[in-house]
Amino acid sequence: MNSATPRTDSAPLSNARKWGTFAICVLLALVPNIDLTALNQAVPHLTADLNPSATQILWIADSYGFVLAGLLITMGGAGDRIGHKKLLLIGTVLFAAASAVTAYAPNAELLIAARALLGVAGATLMPSALSLIRRAFTDPKERTMVVGIFFGIGGLAVGLGPVVSGALLDHFWWGSVFMINVPIMALVLVAGSFVLTESRELVAGRLDLLSVPLSIAGILGLVYAVKEAAVDGFAQAEVGVAALAGAVALVLFVLRQTRLAEPLIDVRLFRRGAFTGAVSTNMFAMFALVAQSLIFSLFFQLALGWSPLKAGLAGLPGALGAMIGGAALAPPLIGALGRARVAAAGLLISAAAFAGFVLVGLDTAYLAMVPLMVLSGLGMGMAMTVTADTVLASVPRERSGAASAISETANELGGALGMAILGSVLNAVYRSSVDLPSGLPADAEHAAGDSLAGAVTAAGSLPAQLAAQVTDAAKAAFTDGMHASMICSATFAGLVAVSALVTLRNVPKVIPEITDEEPVRAPSGKSDITLLD
After folding, report:
1. Helix (H) or strand (E) holding 488
2. What mean pLDDT comes out for the span 2-23?
3. Are strands 527-529 and 520-521 parallel, antiparallel or unpaired?
């Protein structure tokens, strides 16, 4: 080979370049994950400044997630074709620009558009980061370790979102929670230009122009349906219409992929129990983590009356547990126990912690809650490391972007389902058990009977004694709903643990590098994951 030939990732990278790649990808994991939860703290401030309508507030919150979820598969496939370094650097520029526009948006309409643009940029980042890690770390044991660290830090970032945004909002305007992204992305752009290497092992062919809109419509339809179900319930007509439209689009998408020489994703992967089991386990982990984060944020702020910053700090033990479980415990345990047992053990640990939350009440000391938060996060971190590494290792390096996109899409869908299902359980129990005092004005009774937030707002216009009775009843009913949602989480975690034990049972502890022609085989010789039949 001529010495002037550009570097490709077919040869092993130096340690400095490998770990430099990892550091850049970790920075990228921090920003979108913090951004997911930072907006929640900024909403009251931007509402006072921009005066959006109730519908606009929902779209400000949801436009980022909708666009992100809809484009992940497309961007993963695009990265496999044009190169993930190129796509990542384009995404960092777009993310920085969209963050600046979001921070200085003069009205709600521009803010919604800027948040959607952030979603476009975000969809380029996570699949590209995971693919670059997959390509840089070719040693299977080393790859498992860095995937664990990557997802552990990502879990910590979700917990840091309320803390970072709370600290910024104490000193700056609401746009600061977005403006902080700009210097970070500038650093990634400069460092990535010099450190990251581009792959020459690219998937041939262009993106199929029909597959792209079908995948976007399918994912958006399902995500929209579950998000609307979380607000208005599953019986709403638009929920059914959106779910049906999304399902039809996905069926057409799958049929289209089976007829293409170079599909956007190889849907035959889902014939393999291990791949499907890994993706579904990852989805449940996000299902539980996102819902738990929201429920405890509401519990700390509305039921206990803590400030947003204090509530954010209070939720950190769960995020720290996820980082420890993913980065420190999962990799060595995989070598000792195998993937199926580690994933199942993590889920059972989380299930036990979720069940323990039924003992938490309004008078429970915070320190008594910390072990449960740590254990629930620790277990989910263990499970997510196993499943994420299994998904990435299930395909050749040149198709790692599409595999990463599948995993990330499952995460987005899992988070939306967690909000919808566990939020619905909490709200149903609250509305059926809240025991409001008699003599309330009709509007106050309606608001207090609907949610804890409505009760707190309604209490502000009532006499002191009556207001105290309303808030006490609402807090007690919210606690009952929280207990019910935690029982549901524990039950789901137990069922998914059994599923993981079965579907991952033949996956080897160390998954070697594979090509299109080489299946992953368990020691027994049974093929468990193969890209092509």
Report:
1. helix 464-503
2. 64
3. antiparallel
Whether the Cβ atoms of residue 52 and residue 44 lie closer than 8 Å to each other: no
The 3-class secondary structure across 385-406, one letter per residue, is HHHHHHHHHCCCHHHHHHHHHH
* Digit-coded pLDDT (tens) for 32-77: 777 766 776 677 777 777 877 766 776 777 778 778 877 887 887 7
For residues 84 and 75, give the distance between their C-alpha atoms in angstroms, rounded to a whole number: 9
Residue type, 420: A
Establish how many alpha carbons lie within 13 A of residue 214's alpha carbon, considering only the half-sphere containing its beta carbon.
19
In single-letter form, the type of residue at position 247 comes to A
Give CA–CA dist 207/78, Å, rounded.
Answer: 7
When mean pLDDT is compared over 161-175, 233-247, 494-508, the highest value belongs to: 494-508
Spatial separation of the C-alpha atoms in residues 281 and 9, rounded to whole Å: 30
Contact 228, 422 (CB under 8 A): no
For residues 91 and 86, what is the distance between their CA atoms, to the nearest angstrom? 9
Rounded to whole angstroms, the Cα distance separating 76 from 513 reads: 20
The type of residue at 329 is L
Residues 178 and 121 sit within 8 Å (Cβ to Cβ): no
State the greatest distance between any 2 C-alpha atoms of the chain, in Å, as a whole number: 87
pLDDT in tens, 338-354: 888 999 999 999 999 99
